Amino acid sequence: MDQEKYLQDIKEIREMMDRSGRFISLSGISGVVAGIIALVSAFIAYHYIYLDSDFYSFKVVYLSPETIQDIFLLALATLVLSIGSVIILTHQTTKKKGQKLLNKHAKLVLVNLAIPLITGGILCVIFIINGYIGVIAPLTLVFYGLALVNASKFTLDDIRSLGIAQIILGLIGLYFIGYGLILWAAGFGILHIIYGIRMRLKYGS
Amino acid sequence: MKDILNKLDKAFENKVRLGIMSALMVNEQMDFISLKDLLGVTDGNLASHLKNLENREYIGYEKEFVDRKPNTTYRATELGKKAFKNHINAIEKLLSNR
Lengths: 205, 98
Description:
heterodimer, A: mainly alpha, two-stranded antiparallel ribbon, 7 helices, B: alpha+beta, Arc Repressor Mutant, subunit A, 3-stranded antiparallel β-sheet
């Protein structure tokens, strides 16, 4: 009898609560693209900062003021390219779903991402000025992870576990300082790709 | 069975009103345009359902001006939240009774 109708009602309620309370149009593909960009950039950076001559089987990290400038430009390019691809691809998903890109919930996600991210960015700059280069890569992972956990309340739940994974990688990197770049590639590259594919399969976005 | 049916709230028999209440349960407040975008209904349709819920005192509204344009934000009242919870409980009982 009416049961079908009420089942439908419950479904509707759940959907409304979800759709109105969170930003759910994040594009999974954009995660994959950002991951690939990160891997390429890590590969380039690897050839920049590690000198080929092995020194007691450790690779020697060499940073002259010029390389620092190059690395900085590389980092900037990576940042702009990844953020750009996320915005463009997410915009396409929102258009498909008939939503606006910058609705209230998207703004909530952005603000909550930005607070830990900017804090971490400033901290990294302070460390660079003081010459603690080794901690930069793992620190960006930790703060990026914190930013994701913070923003996850307003978007897909998967973002939270992605954030926790990034934090763990970052902390490992802070302990084993020499592996910063490899862990950075694993976090920003491989994890993004895995989560992008997972979200694509789960939400078809 | 009849007892449960009596507990269902007539106010939420309509899909739009159900949607409005669902959205206002998880959001402190929502403005007219966000509600319209969310539910995908026309201005007039949404306005009349909002009026209906207002008359039952299930929702309240605040009018303010943003950039000299009127902007109305809606929020669920305590009465409305209670009524909505009772309605959902009734549906759940109904569904578990079959």
